[in-house]
Hints:
Chain A is α/β, with parallel strands linked by helices. In chain A, 36% of the residues lie in helices and 24% in strands. In chain B, a hairpin with a 2-residue loop joins strand 1 (156-158) and strand 2 (161-164).
Amino acid sequence: xxxxxxxxxxxxxxxxxxxxxETDVAVEIKNMNKWxxxxxxxxxxxxxxxxxxxxxxxxxxxxxxxxxxxxxxRLEEHQKGSIVVDGIELTDDLKKIDEIxxxxxxxFQHFNLFPHLTILENCTLAPIWVRKMxxxxxxxxxxxYLERVKIPEQALKYPGQLSxxxxxxxxxxxxxxxNPKIMLFDxxxxxxxxxxxxxxxxxxxxxxxxxxxxxxxxHEMGFARKVANRVIFMDQGQIVEQNEPEPFFTNPQxxxxxxxxxQILHH
Amino acid sequence: MANADxxxxxxxxxxxxxxxxxxxxxxGWMRKNLFSSVGNTILTFIGIWLAYSIIAPIIQFAFIDAVxxxxxxxxxxATQEGQTVGACWAYVKAxxxxxxxxxxxxxxxxxxxxxxxxxxxxxVPLLIPSLPRKGLNAILFLVVFPVVAYFLxxxxxxxxxxxxxxxxxxxWGGLLVTLVIAVTGIVxxxxxxxxxxxxxRSQMPIVKLVSIIFIEFWRGVPLITVLFMASVVLxxxxxxxxxxxxxxxxxIGVTLFASAYMAEVVRGGLQAIPKGQYEGAQALxxxxxxxxxxxxxxxxxxxxxxxxxxxxxxxxxDTTLVLIVGMFDLLGQIQSSFSDPNWSTPTQxxxxxxxxxxxxxxxxxxxxxYSIFMExxxxxxxxx
Lengths: 267, 384
Ligand SMILES: Nc1ncnc2c1ncn2[C@@H]1O[C@H](COP(=O)(O)OP(=O)(O)O)[C@@H](O)[C@H]1O
Ligand SMILES: [Mg+2]
């Protein structure tokens, strides 16, 4: 992660540090379909994410963005097609689901920290219980990541005593403590006040610079411009358009993309 | 010009001042809370009058006019015309052993005392959060203590050697029976209730169905019926020669009954946990049981502490119902002492009931206070 204490708005992360593997596939989704009852929520999704890629997913509310990335760590089950994560195909096999969840971290819109545990306990819980790490070591790892998200001094507080931005940074640190290979973000800044959005995005930029494979559902187009190497636009359960950020924003092709971008860029 | 009035720049800091005296301290508190308006003032005086007219006679009866010593009923009778005699504590003192042990043999009562002491020494440290070694403590209280208490109370005979003479449960009584039923019921109904609540929310249809049937059955039957079934009907169905202690049957009945209520209380807590907590735990790779044990149940149980303790208190008081199947708990034992001519005086039964009230109140109020203490203790910052 970056050592820059504060990222200014015009800070441009060094893209040369964000290497993308040519051969190593992190996530591969093929012809994936999902229904809620009779409602066809995801239609023929195809997506290949190489190791080190940073994907930004955007689209109108209800277009299936959350559902798609939640399928990657099996918080939602898909009914057709295949999802291969880190070389493991997702099936009903609980062992494989566990294995994938250990390698895939996730941050949610509402943080989902555990309110009855301290920040430190939130961070050490999974390493201790899932990775069977000794407590002392888990605490060292946790403090390391809490320093990286710049809130080591809050370690002994409870989530309810922190601001939203701080909570989301804790949530990121908590995921990182499991040393994941892939990170999923589902609108990590949508529930935050404007002045807190930046502190979370800074952490995410730093994470991108460290070479993490990231799939981010977000409408922070500045973030997408800075770090994404691909932007995906979803509408009505389908991937409608995908491209590199510059051409995606300056020259969208599909009508729906144009409409969506005009709505979020000049409201 | 209007603009001149709108624009304003503060030129000096406004000082921070102490709050006005009339709003702080005892006077301020009383003014704000008791005499804030005419209506409130009237209510305050009505309240004082009500409290006085209820509490004063009780104090008069229980302490001022009370008889504290004496060997028989003579001590608690009016010696001259017009004298009012209050509570006859001398009678309670004389009967206290019976109220505590029932008809437990005199020379074996030390065994009950040992059990009481062990109960306090294994349970109290478990209830004090700051004391260490909770795991060991829990094993002592939940495994070692019940086994030791069982043999101490019922007796222990190995081969021909009588180590502790057998005492039939029919001879138990008083506070002993109350506590045996209440403590067993409380300790066993909580885990059973949690299991049933989880079962009722399970994805597995069979588990879910069995849990629902179990819960609804026990909630749909009055406890008195359960006790009659346990003491009268059940033996009819047991094969000849199989005897099965009545106290044990009652214990099982009370426990299952309480666990059904407990299950619904716990289910209420489980329902209040946001889906995000499950997802947060799953995304970290936690499996079902660790997730439940580490994340969901601690929060759900904390949320329903008032309901859990409510069930405990109800159970504690319901122990008095065993009287109707011929067992003598504390209240039953007190009532049966009313037939003793040696102590029959006009205030005997009032005194007995007052004593029962006081004892039950101490236990139930204790549980209530402890629940409030735990709620505060487990409160971790404001919810957002
Ligand atoms: N558990 C569910 N049951 C039924 N429909 C759902 C469920 N979750 C989401 N949906 C529907 O699926 C669609 C996609 O939802 P979602 O993936 O959350 O969209 P997005 O994250 O893009 O806003 C929406 O129309 C939503 O109403
Ligand atoms: Mg969403």
